[in-house]
Predict the 3D structure of the following.
Amino acid sequence: MNEYTISAGEFARICGTTRDTLRYYDKHKVLIPWKSPENGYHYYSYAQIGTFYFISTLRSVHFSIKEIRDYLLIGNDSGFLPYMNVQIDALKEQRRELDRKIRQLSVVTALDAVTHLSDFGIPVISSFPEEILFRIAPVSTENAFSLSDIARDIQDHIHLFPDMAGSFPAGTAMDAEAFLKGDYRYIKVVSLYHAEDDASALSGEAGKKPFPGSIEAWESVTIFSLPTRRIAAVICRDSDGDIRDIYRRLAAFITENKLKMLTDVFSISMVNIMDPNQRRRYLKYIFVCVE
């Protein structure tokens, strides 16, 4: 018993745990201290430090005390190792999901980065800090001037990409030449995603949940990469007044600076809500690739 020289309190401090946790592990016979017959105190050995971390690691990935005890005391490898592999696969999937969410949010920060130096409603020349890709589908309504006019197209688009949060960030596209002439009809519905997600952008997973028009919607989607990161852009919010004034301001900016538009004009909605006073509040990023 000479190796059992660490008191329960000291062992808890070394391992960054509590004595209650040690008592719990002792009760369930997964980490058993030596009990002094003289004073009843509990003592641990340095060799048990590794055991503690082994147990706490397994507990953190949802191993039960019984499963840990069966492995430690019985050495039941036949059931333990396959279960551990399942947990490892689950953790890898969680990591992939976290990475996907990080990439998704990086698209939002990329949008903000291109216009954060300007005032709201003031067009600027800027550029995307990283490559952003688009999923684009035509709208079914000829004269669509609001999102309610293309509700069916939006629903189809969202259902096609449930695992990639296809509704955010999302928006519409207007024809560039028509835009300069004051025609602000929506001709496409779009959603943005990170370039690293390109491989799964049109994965077959999307087709597993049929819905009306799904085949047509699927066949209409194209993946679009911006021809350049250089853009003419403007941020618009509800307090800027009639959004058509913002459109006209951007069109004038493009004309005055003799810019050539290389893409449709994209209007990406970040926020669109009704506040407690029944007032519509929104935030949009409007941009077009130019040279």
Observations:
- The domain at 102-289 is CATH 3.20.80.10 (Multidrug-efflux Transporter 1 Regulator Bmrr; Chain A).
- The chain has two domains: 6-75, 102-289.
- Residues 43 and 222 are 67 Å apart (CA to CA).
